[in-house]
């Protein structure tokens, strides 16, 4: 569980701080899952994890392939650098989702208090890895001032 939290926190920080993942580590990260804190977290009424600054949601080669040419052109910013090659894999462009009005360009906010991902089935690996109720989820909620439902439960 700690591995996932640290890696996702690293994803949330700008690449200038030297905390980026490559396709291989992100793929492994997706499979390091843990149970959520319950069914009390409704992502469609929150959307906090989709809000951030430029270079917030990193996109890897597998994500670009899954999104396809048209959606990549619409939603993924031009490369800002390169993730160096390592054993067993070549280098790849360092890319991020485009941000619009402080949130991911794929986030649809036309209906008040409703947050839907336009590419949910094909969303980036790092979005898939972030679990509702996890530490990174709760941090994003706190940053946005979104109430956490678990706080209502009696101990």
| Count of strand segments | 7
> What percentage of amino acids are in beta strands?
5-15%
The number of helical runs is 5
Average pLDDT number: 78
Spatial shape = globular
Coarse structural class: alpha+beta
How many domains? The number is: 1
Order of helix and strand elements from N to C terminus? HHEHEEEEEEHH
Secondary-structure topology with pairs:
Blueprint: H1 2-12, H2 23-31, E1 58-59, H3 61-75, E2 81-83, E3 92-96, E4 99-100, E5 103-104, E6 107-108, E7 116-117, H4 125-129, H5 135-144
Antiparallel strand pairs: 1-3, 2-3, 4-5, 6-7
Notes on the protein architecture:
The structure is a single chain. The chain starts with a helix and ends in an 11-residue tail after the last helix. The strands form three sheets. A three-stranded antiparallel beta sheet has the order 1-3-2. The protein has 155 residues and is of the alpha+beta class. It has five helices and seven strands, in the order ααβαββββββαα.
Features:
alpha+beta; two-stranded antiparallel ribbon; 32% helix; disordered N terminus
